[in-house]
Each structure stands twice: as structure tokens, then as C-alpha cells.
Amino acid sequence: MTDESNQASLAAHIVTSYDEDLQYLVRRIAEMGGVAERMLEEAVVSLVNSDPALSQKVISDDLLLDDAERQIGEKAVLIIAKRQPMAADLRDVIGAIRIAADLERVGDMAKNIAKRVLAVQGMAQPKKLVRGLDHLAELALTQLKEVLDAYSQRSAEMANSIRERDDEIDAIYTSLFRELLTYMMEDPRNITACTHLLFCAKNIERIGDHATNIAEVVYYIATGDQLVNDRPKDDETATVGAGD
Amino acid sequence: MTDESNQASLAAHIVTSYDEDLQYLVRRIAEMGGVAERMLEEAVVSLVNSDPALSQKVISDDLLLDDAERQIGEKAVLIIAKRQPMAADLRDVIGAIRIAADLERVGDMAKNIAKRVLAVQGMAQPKKLVRGLDHLAELALTQLKEVLDAYSQRSAEMANSIRERDDEIDAIYTSLFRELLTYMMEDPRNITACTHLLFCAKNIERIGDHATNIAEVVYYIATGDQLVNDRPKDDETATVGAGD
Lengths: 244, 244
Hints:
The structure is a homodimer of 244-residue chains.
Chain A: H1 3-48, H2 52-83, H3 87-119, H4 127-153, H5 156-164, H6 166-186, H7 191-223
Helix pairs in contact in A: 1-2, 1-3, 1-4, 2-3, 3-7, 4-5, 4-6, 4-7, 5-7, 6-7
Protein name (chains A, B): Phosphate-specific transport system accessory protein PhoU
InterPro entries (chains A, B): PhoU, PhoU-like_sf, PhoU_dom
Function (chains A, B): Plays a role in the regulation of phosphate uptake.
């Protein structure tokens, strides 16, 4: 073998290996996304069906995401140190750290919903409001699925359209918030259960926010630009007054 | 000038310049920390004193943190690409990205409190509960101040002790949560105001969580190890049932 071919084969080896490193991050993020989606789905099913065993499963699944985030973070730092990636590659690695952090938080939200399902066990729960929560969760789940697609396709366009749709989740959350207040006022015996449902709704709304954060990271990975934050991340319920 | 002294002066120049880059990040994080602390302080003062002008100030100050986070993120990526830092230096830069994200979220929480102060304007607010919120905010503020000290001193030991004290905030939050429920049950006219106070308390509790996250990043910067997550990040109120 000549020196030249030796070097070419070495270079090819390094390139492949680097791609493998990035593929590892992409694969682990996709796995985390799958777990986070399932946790949200199951948390809400456990609420609708009053299924404490399923709630317990969601609570213990959260450890999977905590571990995955830590491992992705460690691997990302190793990749930067070893490979010294530039430009788009560096954005990929930094982006993976950020997305993993958001998905880990989505898991925390789903776990919190599951815990509240256990807390409201046996209390009267207004069917209409539980249906409302179910609908809100469907929207958040769609956002989550689509943003993970946008990530795997590195699509700035998809990322942008996801970000714009967060308003719909906020609007439905705000109307649920008002309904829950009304329900509590009608009968004080509903207060404990409704307060837990209120926090469940808030958790789902925050999952929508995390999907939006991920969309912003995908946009950054794909384009190198940061979307300037003209989107009001805050929910509207903060301004719901007594006269509403 | 000899070649050797030329090189030495070049090396010194590069070193200085790199330190300047890192110092920029440290300085910007300290500034963000200062703004976040002030926002929390003023949000709670505006609640205690029913001061809508101060609430408005907190709401508009949030933009400062959004901008600072974006700028720190951009600078950090530039530093990695240009300087290709290794080991402790790389941890510093990655850590700055993470801490900036947490401080930006602290600003969001303070802004949300300020908005709710505007929403409850003119409603009866239980003095005792507002005092409870004020106390909770003091604890969170102490955590925030100390974790920023731990960051500026790169102290793993301080970081660790801050992380352990988050339990106290969670315990006080849980007792406030119960009191707020009781107050709502006593008189349904309190429900709207108490719900907003409930979310204010939750925001403060989450600021404590962000301080804990930052403590974990400081530990990582200082030691290179990640603290394994044996700390229950979730609040206890998720399990407050009807029998409590």
C-alpha cells in the first residue's frame, strides 16, 4: 500500500466514524422522542380510563429519559473534544444537547400528569373537562411527532410551521382554564380534583412549548440562524381576571 | 525579534484572547443572573404592594434575558468553532449555554408572576398566603444568588449544598398549595385569585428547580462529572389528595 492510499483510507475511516458519532446522537434523540410521546399518550389514557397501573408505568419510564439525556450530553461533549466539528456539524452536536434537554422536560411533565391521576383517583371528575384535556394532549402530541420529523429531516420549513401552531394549543388551554375555574366555583367539592386537572392542562401546554423550543433548535441546525423570539411563549391564562 | 520570541508573543496573545472570550461568557451570565434576581424580587414586591407599574416593568425586562440568552448561545458556538477548546474549557462553554437557558426560563417565571399580579388587581387576596409566597420567593432568591456565586467561584462543594436545599422550597410550596386549596373551599369567591396565587407559587418553586439545574451545571463545569439524578425534581403537590 502506498502512503497516499494509506492516508486516503485513514481519512475515509475518520469521516465514517464521525458520521457514526452524529448518527448515534440522531438515533438517541429519536428514541427519546418515542419514549416522550408514549409517556404523554399513556399519562392521558391513564387519566381518561382511571388506570393507576398505567400511571405508575409512566412514572417509572421517566428514568429512561433522565438517563438518555445524560448519556447524550456526555457523548456530545466527547464528540466536540475529539472531532472539533465546525459549522453545520457543530450546530448538530449543540442542537442535540438542547433537544435532549427539552425531551427530558417533556418526560417530567408526563410524569407529573401521571402522579396527579393517582391523586384524583376516586374523586368525581367532570367528563367534559377530561375530554378537553384529551383533545389538548392530542394537539401537543401532534406537535411533538412533527417536530421530531422536522429534526430527522433537518427541515427549517417544517420547524417554522410547527412553531406557528403553538397558538392553537394556548387558546384551547386558556378556554379549559376558564371552564375549570367555573366548575370549581359551582361546587367547592370539585376544587381539589379541578386543581390537579388545571396543572395537568398546564403540563400539556408546556409540552407544546417544549415542542416549539425544539422547532427553534431544528431551525438553527438547518440554517445556522436563530429565530428571533417574537413568539409569546407565555400562556394567556395569566391574564384571566374575575370579570371573565 | 527572533522567531522564538515572535511565537511566544503570538501564543500569549492567543491565550489572552481566549481568556477574554471565556470572561465574556462569565460576565454575561453574571449580568443575566442579576437581571433574573431583580425580576423575581420586583415581581413579588409588585404582588405584596399591588403595584401594577412595577409588574409592567418586570414584564418588559424579560426581553433583556431573551436577548442575552441568544447572544451567549451565538458567542459560545463561535468560541467552540474558533478556539476548539478541550476538557475544562469546553465544559465552561457548554455550561454557559446551559446556564443561560435556565436563567432565561427564570425570567419567564418572574414575568408570569407579574402578569398574574395584574390579573388579580382589585380582588381580595389573603394576606397570610401572600406572606407565604413572599417567604417562598426569598428562599428561591437565596438559592439563585448562591448558585451564581458558586458559578463565579467554580465551586463544586457550594453547588452540591445548594442542590440539597431545594427540598425546603418544595416543602413550603406544598404547604402553601394546601392552604390555597382550603381557602378556595371556604369561599368560592376566592377561587380566581387563589388559582393565580397557586400558579405564582408554582413559578417560584420552578425557579428553585432552575437554581438546582444551574447547580448541577456548575458541578459539571468544576469536576467534569455529572451528578446522577437522585434528586426528585417533581414537586410534592402532585400527590395531594382529597383526604389531606
